[in-house]
Amino acid sequence: MTFTNAISWFEIPTTDIDRAQKFYETIFDIQMIPMDNPHIQMRLFPIENPVNVGGSITFNNDFYKPSPTEGPLVYLNANPDVQLILDRIESAGGNIIVPKTQISPEYGYMAIFIDSEGNRVGLHAVPQ
């Protein structure tokens, strides 16, 4: 099997979906897309093509648990510059735990923050 992308979908747990939505809309300057059903509440990150990698913030109290130290670490696209997103995190209710750091000249920069729900989340930007 060959992957175009190693990830096809991700879900970031929330304890308060409205607070988390406001946090992510603020730091990325986006409008998230509501998608709720009787078992789960989701706010999707906007993407141009549904075939591309996508994801959401998600609430289901019995299935998800935010964590600043456990579980997978998802890196969100911060192009064109990780610092643009980092500059909004603390005022939106998050904490930066790894500042903008160069991976290498060809692989760009990364950073890690704790979101409004207590999740550890990464940022990545590739040089343009």
3D structure, described in words:
By secondary structure, this protein is an alpha/beta fold. It has one domain: 2,3-Dihydroxybiphenyl 1,2-Dioxygenase, domain 1. The chain has two helices and eight strands; from the N terminus they run E-H-E-E-E-E-H-E-E-E. It has a four-stranded mixed sheet. The protein has a four-stranded mixed sheet with strand order 5-8-7-6. The model has no long low-confidence stretch (mean pLDDT 92).
Class by alpha and beta content: alpha/beta
Q: What do we call the CATH topology?
A: 2,3-Dihydroxybiphenyl 1,2-Dioxygenase, domain 1
Radius of gyration, whole Å: 14 Å
Write the CATH architecture name.
Roll
User: Can you count the beta strands?
Assistant: 8
- In DSSP terms, counting alpha (H) and pi (I) runs of 4 or more, how many helices? 2
Fraction of residues in β-strands? 35-45%
Q: Largest sheet, order of strands side by side?
A: 1-4-3-2
Distance between the termini: 30 Å
Q: Globular, elongated, flat, extended or rod-shaped: what is the shape? A: globular
Helix-strand sequence: EHEEEEHEEE
Which stretches are low in confidence, meaning pLDDT under 50 for 5 or more residues running?
none
What is the CATH class name? Alpha Beta
Average pLDDT confidence is: 92
Can you summarize the main beta sheet?
4 strands, mixed
Helical fraction equals: 10-25%
Fourth CATH level, the homologous superfamily = 2,3-Dihydroxybiphenyl 1,2-Dioxygenase, domain 1
How would you summarize the topology of this molecule?
Elements: E1 9-13, H1 17-28, E2 33-37, E3 40-44, E4 54-59, E5 75-77, H2 82-89, E6 95-104, E7 108-114, E8 120-125
Parallel strand pairs: 1-4, 5-8
Antiparallel strand pairs: 2-3, 3-4, 6-7, 7-8
Helix pairs in contact: 1-2
